[in-house]
Amino acid sequence: MFGVMFRHNDGYPIVLTSEIATASDTFGASVVGFASAIPENYFRRRIAHMFFRVSSDREGRVKRAPYGLAKVEAALLHYGFSRSDVVIASPYKLDRVIGPRTRIVGIYTMDALGLSYGSGILYWILKLADLPYRGLPYIARSFMEVVEHPAIKAHKDHIKVVVGGPATWQLVDTGAWQKLGVDVVYEGSFENYGPVLFERILKGEDVRGRVVNSKPPSMEEVPTIVTPSIGGIVEVTRGCGRGCAFCTPTLNGMISSFPFEGHIDKEIITNIEKGGFKSITLHSEEFFRYGAKGIDPNPDKVKELVVKAYKLIKRYGEDYRLHTDFTTAAVVVQAPELVKFVGEYMNEGGDWSFIEMGIETGSPRLLNMLMAGKAKPFTPRQYPDIVEQAVGILNDNRWVVVGTMILNLPGERDEDVAASLELLDRLRKYRILTFPLPFIPMGALRKRDFTVLDKMIEDPLRRELILKALIKSMEEAVRSVELIVGNMENIVAKLIIRRISLFAFNLVLSRYKAKLGQLGEHSAEFIRKLASAALNLPGERDEDVAASLELLDRLRKYRILTFPLPFIPMGALRRRDFTVLDKMIEDPLRREFILKALIKSMEEAVRSVELIVGNMENMVAKLIIKRISLFAFNLVLSRYKAKLGQLGEQSAEFIRKLASAAWDISKSPVRIPIDEANQ
Length: 679
Description:
This protein is α/β, with parallel strands linked by helices. Among the domains are: 1-227, no CATH class; 532-665, no CATH class. The chain is 46% helix and 11% strand. It has a 6-stranded parallel β-sheet, with helices on both faces. Strands 12-13-14-15 form a 4-stranded parallel β-sheet, with helices on both faces. Strands 7-10-11 form a 3-stranded parallel β-sheet, covered by helices on one side. Helix 9 (194-202) links the parallel strand 5 (184-188) and strand 6. The longest helix has 41 residues, at 491-531. It is elongated. The termini are far apart.
């Protein structure tokens, strides 16, 4: 279209690149890229550049690119620019592609300032393990290396720096883009407006500021990639449609699917033939809803896609593999047979693979408030059960789940965190990495303040959730280390990274367990004081016992063992007579209280028997004690219930008498002084 041909030492008119950590395929294992969130005090410049290598030709054109950047290049070429106009360049070789003719440097960023979920969790991982954290996450430092590159500075008088990608909100919300010399911050889909903007800049228009393209392109407007994508990624859907308030895919609207013929197949071929990949990842925000028109999945469309993609990659060899990356819990439970079908293709031969699932919260209240669509077609109240079922189904089909749980969501209360803790305890028996994430403003919530990470880990309840989630994650990471490094192409690097990873996982794991033990001792004492109701306290009256009975009834829906304790004189009360235990259980009101408390305790003990015997080292003894315990718990439980039935509801009658007396009192006139100044 433009017919522009320049010698490369004069520079390309349009240079596309990304921060170093994002540009690297980390030796072919993109999951290892998680290390990019490690702070710079662990990554000296030379070591970082060795680890985050970028494969490119002599002129600087990369052989593989981040998928989003490859899509930008594809849109520009589709619009009419030529390969002589546009280059995706290695951030290490910008001096070879930027020159007098360069007009645009487009930088793709995943975490420009280190404020993403990944960087937040690495902060917690190191802080809670008492490991030093200094400076920026390396991914943010590598963004600075690019935006402050000498080649850009040398030609700044005729270059517009345009930054796009998932992390542009960080630059906008902090105002950092202007301080860094960024001319344009581009947000939203690129295909249907980005090329027009670039053309305007090339024509000399003085375009500056924030550009937001809120209109998603039609699927026909999205061209296929020309440069292979890091990780062998092939996008099969866009959008989600579940409407979570904090998530950027929400901005793309309802889920839309790309056709296999002429789109998905072309990108698979590009990644295999030009990129050299033997593993293809069919990327989707919710893979099992490929081809769907609404919330409900379309199993036939998903099966058709999987079979066609599988047959295509197997043309290149039996060792070629097919994967996907994201799902929700709801669709897995809604279509378990579909999950099984897909698993037979993607995890063939007994192989395991990772799949991400945003759990986000175990609180039905919070789910209903911020992301009710996440549970559809089920209800928010059912969501914790749905999550557990989904993880089990995915495990049954050889997927290790990477589950995220967000803390500090708008409107979060302690009871929401407690609900997430309960769900976390239920997930302990499954193969899942549970990552606690700090809330980061995105989508419709981008104007909230940033999470103060230190304050969150200082809160005992949230600290417990973070520690338990990280312990589960590290335990599974040790077990799954071969999966983590499995796709690394360099055998030496693979061996080194494997050993370093195992050392790091076990180091932080031991420290987390020690800290949780300290926290647990404090929590256990606190819970014991709350859950143990003492009877026969000095001055105790029947109405006090009735009040305790009412509280006990309110606690029935929670996971709690309620132990009734007889008052034992201590401290200043030592001189009192000891409690006569028999007299207490002969009293109908107190007998009812004791029976109800013990029934609740025994019911929970049956449910928690694995926790009770969990740390026993002798397996035979563990099995015997478990069976004896279950027999004993159920025996006394049945007898308590029978006795409670015989006893009847003594307290109900007593409470009615109290209420009647209160009503009689309320009929008497009472004069209440009012401070008019405080009305």
